[in-house]
Fold:
Amino acid sequence: MSKGEKTKVFILDTGLTLAGEHGLEGVSIGLLAKVTGMSKSGLFAHFNSKENLQLAILSYAAEDFLQQVIVPATKVTRGIPRILALVDNWVSWSDNMSGGCIFASAGTEFSERPGKVRDLLFKQQQLWLNSIVRVAESAISENYFNDKADLDQFAFELYSFLLGINSYRQMLHDPEIEIKKEKALLSLLSRYVKPEVKLENYL
Structure:
C-alpha cells in the first residue's frame, strides 16, 4: 500500500468513527481536518465536497463489511452453519463500530433525503439482502430449509432481527441480549427448516 493509499485509509477510518459519534451528516471536511490534524485544503483535494466524503465513508464501510462479515461466512459450511456465521460476523462487526451499524444509523438520517447518499445506502442494503437470500438458497440446496421456503421473507426477518440486536446493544444496553438473541434466532430458523433438522445441534 502506497503512502497516499495509507493516508486515505486513515482519513476514511477516522471519518467512519466520527460518523458513529456524530452521525454521517455530522462529518464535515472541517471536523475531519481537526481530528486528523490535516489541512482542510488537503482533505478537500481528496473529496471536493462533503457529499463525496460521505459517499467515500459509506463505500469504505461497505468494503469493511464485505471483508469482515460476508467473505468469512462464505468459507463456512453451506446452510445453517453459514447463516449462523453470517449472524455472528455481523454482530461482531456492528459491536466493533463506533455507534453500531453505520448503515442503520445513516439510513435513518437519509431516509427522507433524496440524493446520491440515500441512493448508495439503498443499493448497499439491497446487496446485503441479496446476500442473505443467497445464503438461504444454500440452506435449501443442502436440505436444511424447506424447498418452498419464502426466501424474501426470510431475508426480511433476518435483516430485521439484526437491526433489533443493534438497537438493543447500542441504545438499550440490555444485559440479557445474548439470551434473547439465541431465542429469537431459534424461533426464526424453526419456521424455515425441515422437521428432521435439529437446530439445537447448531445453536
